[in-house]
Specification:
Blueprint lengths: L1 H15 L3 E2 L20 E5 L4 E5 L2 E2 L20 E2 L14 E10 L3 E22 L2 E17 L7 E10 L9 E13 L3 H24 L1
Antiparallel strand pairs: 1-10, 2-3, 2-6, 4-5, 6-9, 7-8, 7-9, 7-10
Helix pairs in contact: 1-2
Length: 216
């Protein structure tokens, strides 16, 4: 009986080492000081009016920018924009594209078990891509759009992109992105020692069961 209890404890230890945890590095936009660069995201932007190479987007200033009717900044997330000149107008003559990229690493985790949900707002619209596969799209800066994924993850580094389109208007217009993650989870890959413990427990259960049959 004691051996069976020990085997069960070993098996439980192996299984419990693979519990679900939050995914690291899924950051809301605007985590940092107002007016500073949001180093969690990189930005690549291009249009016929403005070309911005790979760079760091800027966190908007509370009570200064964004202007209404953009969703107001709060303690959970803030808008990020292409330049420190946050009232700058872009794309007066043709639509511009602004790609904000967030990377996260699933090394040591089971990529097949990963998943997240979130929401975004964009001026003017955005397509959301996980490892270059579209998972959501939407438009508007006065209300949230949802996004989610429970597949399409890969071992190691993953990339999440928000490809923002800014519509052309006479005189140009501002552009920006806001993102909040609501839930995320992934299962850790058990250490080799955990597999060994599980195997030992199963073998011991089998041996005890065989002996009990022989006694009978």
């Amino acid at each position: 009986m004691k051996r069976i209890i020990l085997a069960g404890a070993l098996a439980f230890a192996a299984v419990s080492s693979a519990h679900a945890v939050r995914i690291n590095d899924l950051y809301n936009t605007g985590i940092g000081a107002n007016g500073a660069g949001d180093t969690h995201y990189s930005l690549n932007a291009a249009s016929s009016d403005t070309v911005i190479g790979n760079t760091v987007p800027v966190i908007t200033l509370d009570n200064v920018w964004p202007i209404s009717p953009w969703l107001a900044n709060d303690g959970t997330s803030k808008w990020i924009t292409p330049t420190a000149s946050q009232g700058q107008s872009f794309d007066a003559f043709s639509a511009g594209t602004y790609t904000y990229t967030l990377s996260f690493d699933l090394t040591g985790y089971n990529a097949g078990s990963a998943g997240f949900t979130g929401r975004f707002a964009a001026d003017n619209d955005a397509v959301v891509k996980l490892n270059n596969q579209v998972i959501a799209s939407g438009s508007g800066f006065t209300a949230w759009n949802g996004f989610a994924a429970n597949s399409g993850f890969q071992a190691g580094v993953n990339t999440l992109q928000f490809v923002v389109g800014n519509w052309a208007q006479n005189g140009g217009n501002p552009t920006g992105l806001r993102v909040e993650f609501l839930t995320s989870s992934v299962t850790a890959v058990p250490e080799p020692s955990s597999y060994a413990m599980l195997l030992a427990g199963l073998v011991l259960v089998g041996v005890v069961g065989s002996r009990r049959k022989q006694v009978r």
